[in-house]
Amino acid sequence: MKELLYIETSPRAARSASTEVARAFLDEAARLHPGCRVTTLNPWTMALPELSQDMLDAKYAGIAGVPLTAAQQAAWDEVRRTAAPFHTADHIVLAVPLWNFGIPYKLKHLIDVVSHKDVLFRFDENGLSGMLQTPRATVVCARGLDYPLGKDGSAHALDFQLPYIETWLRFIGVREVRAVVVEKTLMGPEVDAEARAAARRRAVELAEGL
Fold first, then answer.
1. Per-residue pLDDT tens for 31-42?
2. What is the fold of 3-207?
């Protein structure tokens, strides 16, 4: 049975381009893999723990090998509970709108809660390594305008959305990151509809290689 982790990060619900395209991927995945299970994380609706003093003290106590206090252990247990779905996922799907050249702050909150040593990554004298064994992730990025690649194939200088998510996913152990980008959603209804349709088709194609 396929285990999919879906992270939905737009508060626009049904109007969201990133959500619409990601759900096209999920629908096709469900059609191709009957019985696949989807766990959804929505940082807008989940009770994400704050990065409190106890949580940060627990983090550094773990790095130093110092026993945790009861309050620190309780805070760290919240971190591990929040991160648990990442460890069981065969595939991670993210729906991410572009906000001010980057990602929504609620997604950054989720990333900051779960991205800790011995939770999603390790480090020692040999360097850093991700703890996940996830073969692939699919990232759906939505943008109001277009951000073309540079002449050398690099991301546009204003794009801190997809490069950041790709880097983070690889850092925590995802081996391959594939992207679907839907752009020009603010350029009028016709352009928006065409962009969404093309992105949905691409998402369906990627679901076939799940």
1. 999 989 999 999
2. Rossmann fold (3.40.50)
